[in-house]
């Protein structure tokens, strides 16, 4: 069998020419074996009807096998010639023939350098797309965080609005002014608490010395 891969023919036919010829060879060979068995069976029947025939079935089988070997040798030689003819004249696509699906390659031809440049450009575009996708994902995450922060700020504003309404109902005046006074009072209380803690510490030290 031919060792030529014949890839272009395989693309066109959908099967390798060598596989096709191998199946034809096996089919012919099987038919030859079956034919020899039929011939052997006919000979056995004919000889069985001849009185005094001294030819045994084993001798017939030896003759059949010898004839089968003779036929197979001649068949292999003939098939080799047929295979060569089929591969060259029937199952072969000439070099000047271009399949329809490959005509685009004839219209847009590129050298190795141009093809490599296109590959490099494609790789750069892929990297840019991945970078833009990552940036978009980061922006989406940041927007989600901003939505959460905005919701919390709205809750705080609602709380301040409620406190301001309460202050107005109680006649406490402006909430901002009240909040500033509350902050100042808190700071004064912290100063007083700190002074008390220092005096208490000084008294404990004095008691320990006494």
TrEMBL record:
Q: Where in the cell is it found?
A: Chromosome, Centromere, Kinetochore
Alphabetically sorted, this entry's keywords are: Cell cycle, Cell division, Centromere, Chromosome, Coiled coil, Kinetochore, Mitosis
Coiled-coil positions are 108-156
Which GO biological process annotations does it have? cell division; kinetochore assembly; mitotic sister chromatid segregation
Major subcellular location class: nucleus
One cellular component term from this protein's GO annotations in UniProt: MIS12/MIND type complex
Q: Could you tell me which InterPro entries the record lists for this protein?
A: Centromere_Mis12
* Nucleotide-binding among keywords: no
Superkingdom assignment: Eukaryota
What is an example of a Pfam family matching this protein? Mis12
- Please give the name of this protein: Protein MIS12 homolog
């Amino acid at each position: 069998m031919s060792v030529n891969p014949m890839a272009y023919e395989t693309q066109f036919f959908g099967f390798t020419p060598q596989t096709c010829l191998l199946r034809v060879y096996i089919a012919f060979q099987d038919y030859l074996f079956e034919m020899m068995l039929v011939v052997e069976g006919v000979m056995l029947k004919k000889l069985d009807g001849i009185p005094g025939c001294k030819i045994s079935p084993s001798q017939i089988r030896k003759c059949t096998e010898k004839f089968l070997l003779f036929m197979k040798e001649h068949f292999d030689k003939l098939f080799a010639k047929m295979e060569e003819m089929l591969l060259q004249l029937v199952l072969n696509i000439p070099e000047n023939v271009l399949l329809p699906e490959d005509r685009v390659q004839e219209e847009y031809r590129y050298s190795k350098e141009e093809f490599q440049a296109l590959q490099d450009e494609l790789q750069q575009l892929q990297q840019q797309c991945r970078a833009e996708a990552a940036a978009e994902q980061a922006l989406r995450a940041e927007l989600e965080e901003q939505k959460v922060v905005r919701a919390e700020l709205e809750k705080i504003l609602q709380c301040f609005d409620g406190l301001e309404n309460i202050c107005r109902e109680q006649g406490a005046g402006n909430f901002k002014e009240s909040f500033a006074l509350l902050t100042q009072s808190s700071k004064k209380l912290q100063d007083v608490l700190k002074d008390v803690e220092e005096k208490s510490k000084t008294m404990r030290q004095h008691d320990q010395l006494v």
